[in-house]
């Protein structure tokens, strides 16, 4: 599959688009408005030095070639006109994802395979909205995809195995380690392990048990982990945990979401990709 369309150009969507283009794919980056898409140029400039820092084979020439393989569009039919694969990375809200896939399914070519990058929702929650559930599955990326290069491939009961195989091959072609799940699992493997850690840290912070820096330092020192939970939140970005927890059944997680909005999101502290989150980044 050579032609990729990415729906949503936020932190993860833009990373997926750039990683695919860096590995030779032709990419269309779609978002709702041209105003949103004008921010992509700055996003590419942010990613280039990270590739140079982390990947031995990265060169300025290869990075420029990657940018040249990406075009942007706010016209969904245009963005999908020749897509072999669509990867959706819109906000982690079921209604938004289902609406997005209903529109995509109505205009995508017959050949197109559909994949969601949802962190928490199951493919079976969304598949029927696309109109072609047999071609629908999840391909989940970890943040900083060029470095944390896992691609979790998870179908639902109605996914035709040939399309799961094709998506796994695509993941490998763009530098991912394709991880095949045998069945649907909320949170896949990575987030099934990670979310309990982040939840525990969030509750300690919401209860004012300790400052986030102390919580991070405790985790790093005690386990040898390179990142504390709030450093991980900065990598993920503030919007995803806010969207997940704003209407949580757990009052402490709703309180944590309120803290994120009041003290961070409303102040433009959206995470590492924007230069500031819990921590400030140069």
TrEMBL record:
Site feature location: Important for catalytic activity: 140
GO MF annotations, alphabetized: NAD+ binding; oxidoreductase activity, acting on the CH-OH group of donors, NAD or NADP as acceptor
Pathway: Lipid metabolism; butanoate metabolism
Pfam family, one: 3HCDH
Annotated NCBIfam families: PRK08293.1 (NF006143)
Source organism phylogeny: Bacteria, Bacillati, Actinomycetota, Actinomycetes, Micrococcales
Oxidoreductase in keyword set: yes
Keyword tags: Oxidoreductase
SUPFAM superfamilies tied to this protein: 6-phosphogluconate dehydrogenase C-terminal domain-like (SSF48179), NAD(P)-binding Rossmann-fold domains (SSF51735)
InterPro entries the record matches: 3-OHacyl-CoA_DH, 3-OHacyl-CoA_DH_NAD-bd, 3HC_DH_C, 6-PGluconate_DH-like_C_sf, 6PGD_dom2, NAD(P)-bd_dom_sf
Bilayer-spanning residue ranges: none
Gene3D superfamilies reported for this sequence: N-(1-d-carboxylethyl)-l-norvaline Dehydrogenase, domain 2, NAD(P)-binding Rossmann-like Domain
Family to which this protein belongs: Belongs to the 3-hydroxyacyl-CoA dehydrogenase family.
Domain 3-hydroxyacyl-CoA dehydrogenase C-terminal: 187-281
ATP-binding recorded as keyword: no
Domain 3-hydroxyacyl-CoA dehydrogenase NAD binding: 4-182
Organism: Neomicrococcus aestuarii
Protein name: 3-hydroxybutyryl-CoA dehydrogenase
């Amino acid at each position: 599959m050579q032609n990729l369309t990415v729906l949503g150009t936020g932190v993860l969507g833009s990373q997926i688009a750039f990683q695919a283009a860096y590995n030779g794919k032709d990419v269309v980056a779609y978002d709702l408005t041209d105003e949103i898409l004008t921010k992509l140029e700055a996003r590419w400039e942010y990613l280039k030095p990270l590739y140079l820092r982390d990947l031995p084979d990265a060169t300025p020439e290869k990075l420029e070639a990657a940018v040249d393989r990406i075009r942007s569009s706010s016209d969904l039919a245009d963005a999908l006109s020749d897509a072999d694969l669509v990867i959706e990375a819109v906000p982690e809200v079921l209604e938004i994802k289902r609406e997005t896939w209903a529109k995509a399914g109505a205009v995508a070519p017959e050949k197109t395979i559909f994949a969601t990058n949802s962190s928490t929702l199951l493919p079976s929650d969304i598949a029927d909205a696309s109109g072609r559930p047999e071609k629908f599955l999840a391909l989940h990326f970890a943040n900083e995809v060029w470095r944390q290069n896992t691609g979790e491939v998870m179908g639902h009961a109605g996914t035709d195995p040939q399309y799961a195989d094709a998506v796994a091959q695509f993941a490998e072609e763009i530098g991912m380690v394709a991880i095949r799940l045998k069945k649907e699992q909320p949170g896949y493997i990575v987030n099934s392990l990670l979310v309990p850690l982040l939840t525990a840290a969030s509750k300690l912070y919401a209860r004012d048990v300790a400052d986030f820096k102390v919580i991070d330092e405790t985790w790093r020192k005690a386990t040898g982990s390179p990142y504390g939970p709030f450093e991980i939140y900065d990598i993920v970005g503030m919007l995803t945990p806010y969207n997940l927890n704003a209407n949580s059944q757990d009052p402490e997680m709703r309180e944590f979401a309120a803290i994120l909005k009041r003290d961070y999101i409303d102040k433009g502290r959206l995470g590492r990709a924007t230069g500031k989150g819990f921590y400030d980044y140069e």
